[in-house]
């Protein structure tokens, strides 16, 4: 079995819900398993550091997780049209992997959750692709031809990746379309990894 790393940051749960749907999609592909990880919060002034192990949820990511995976799904809530600072902080520490080419040729996908429908979903997804492209990863999206929900969704979901409109108070549950698209993205990512790595 090979593993797809699902690496995400979530504050109010919207990105977490998408990560779970992607994990289900990955698990549908023979020979593939999801490995779910997160990143700790960061702040300019820290009164009490984050614990070495999260109180709940998935473990914190380590560089070895990126080296060992055969594909990556990267998720973050939107912060002014960009990924959240904790996720950016983590990627700023991956120079050793970049120098070694550890991620080059591996497939990757992105996903996000926003407080408003036009709160920067697509720009966040595109901005998350930038470090992945610098690492030489192969981006997997959601094609209109294969995923009809991309054409008909009135909530989240884009050709650039999965997304969720959580509402300004994070009270909106993920829609059926958002969940189907996130699951489909996980399935497509795992399928691409299976082909690229000649697994099974």
List keywords for this structure.
single chain, 200 residues, alpha/beta, globular
How would you summarize what this structure contains?
By secondary structure, the protein is an alpha/beta fold.
- Per DSSP, what share of the residues sits in E-state strands of 2 or more residues? 15-25%
What number of structural domains do the residues give? 1
SSE order, as H and E? EHEHEEHHEHEHEH
Number of helices, where a helix is a run of at least 4 consecutive DSSP H or I residues: 7
In terms of structural class, how would the helical and strand content be classed? Answer: alpha/beta
Q: Please give the CATH architecture.
A: 3-Layer(aba) Sandwich
State the CATH topology.
Answer: Rossmann fold
Mean pLDDT, all residues: 91
Termini gap: 9 Å
Per CATH, the class reads: Alpha Beta
Largest sheet, described in full? Answer: 7 strands, mixed
Helix content estimate: 25-40%
């Amino acid at each position: 079995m090979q593993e797809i790393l699902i690496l995400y940051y979530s504050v109010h749960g919207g990105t977490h819900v998408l990560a779970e749907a992607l994990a289900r999609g990955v698990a549908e592909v023979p020979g593939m398993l999801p490995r779910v990880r997160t990143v700790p919060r960061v702040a300019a002034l820290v009164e009490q550091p984050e614990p070495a192990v999260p109180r709940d949820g998935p473990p914190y990511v380590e560089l070895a997780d990126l080296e060992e995976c055969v594909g990556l799904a990267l998720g973050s809530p939107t912060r002014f049209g960009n990924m959240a600072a904790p996720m950016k902080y983590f990627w700023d520490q991956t120079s050793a992997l970049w120098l070694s080419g550890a991620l080059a040729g591996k497939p990757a996908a992105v996903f996000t959750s926003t407080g408003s429908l036009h709160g920067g979903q697509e720009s966040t997804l595109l901005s998350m692709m930038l470090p992945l492209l610098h690492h030489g990863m192969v981006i997997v999206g959601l094609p209109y031809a294969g995923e009809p929900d991309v054409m008909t969704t009135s909530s989240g979901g884009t050709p650039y990746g999965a997304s969720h409109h959580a509402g300004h108070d994070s009270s909106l549950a993920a829609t059926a379309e958002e969940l189907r698209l996130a699951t489909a993205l996980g399935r497509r990512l795992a399928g691409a990894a299976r082909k690229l790595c000649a697994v099974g």
